[in-house]
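Hey, sorry to bother you again with one of my protein questions. I've been staring at a protein lately and its backbone has me curious. I owe you a coffee for this, so here goes:
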Amino acid sequence: MPKSTHSFFLGCAIPSMVLSYEIATRRIAKSFDIELVEMPEFSCCGLPLDPVSHDMMLLLAAQNLCLAEQQGLNIMTMCPGCNGTLCKVNKMLKEDRKLKETVNGYLSKVGMEFKGNISVKHLVQVLTEDVGYEEIKKTIQRPLKGLKVAAHYGCHILRPAEYVEIDDPENPTILKKLIEVTGARYLDYVNELQCCGATIIGAGRSPVDRKGDLSIQLARDKLIHLKEAGVQALVTLCPSCYRVFDVNQPIIERLFGEDYGIPVLHYPELLALAMGINPNDLALTEHRVKLSNLIEGL
C-alpha cells in the first residue's frame, strides 16, 4: 500500500511552462511511495478570475473539489496559487451553509454536489506531514554539504494564512527545515519575504525601457540581496516566482550590466539531488540560469 494517495492537481502554468517542477515532484513522490492519481478532468483553479469574476472563481474551484470528492481523494497541489484558491473555497463552502447551497445549485446543472469531505495540501505539507523530516533524512544519499542555499517563499504559499494554514506568514520556517534536511546550509538575506513581482509584470513599464518595469525592479532588488549574502542557489515553490528569477535573471543582467549567476531550483529538484537521483533524470537543462557548475560542485 502507498504511504499516501492524492489526486494530483497540476494547474495551468506547470505543465505548459515549468515542466521541470512536475518531473522532480513525480520522482521524489515515487521514492516516498506517494501515489499521485492523474485527474485529466481538472480545470483551472479559478485564481486568475478573482476578483474580476469572483463567482466564476468559486464555481471553477468547487468543480475541481467535487471531482476529487468523487474519487474519495484529497488533493495535492504544486502551485501555491492553486493551493490557496482551492483551500480558500474548500473552507468557505464548508463553513458558509448559504454559499454552499448557492454553489451547489449551479453545480447540480452538471450533476455535481460539493460535500466538503476532502482536504487540499501543497507538496510541502505532504512531505512534512505525510512523510516527515526524519523519514526524508533517511533517503539522503548525497548530502549537499557546503552548498549555500536561500529560499523564496512567495506570497501565496503563506497567505491568506487563515485558509492555507501552512506556516507563520511573518516568520516561516517550513522551507528552511526542508532545505536543511538535504544537508545544505540555509542562508537568510535582506527582504526575504518580499514579493517577486510576478503579479505586477508590466506595471509602470515604459514601452522603450524595461528598467521601469516594477517587477524587474523587485526581482533585481532580491537578486542584489541574494548575491550580497553569498547565496549559491535559490529555492522556490511557485512556478511564477521561479520564472521571475530564472527567466528574468539574464534579462536583468543585460539591462543593468550586472552579473548574478544564481541558479534557481524548485525544492523537489534540490531534494532529488540530495537523494542521489541522477541529474539527467530531472530536466535540469530547462533552466535558463545554467546549473552545470552547481552540479559539478556537488
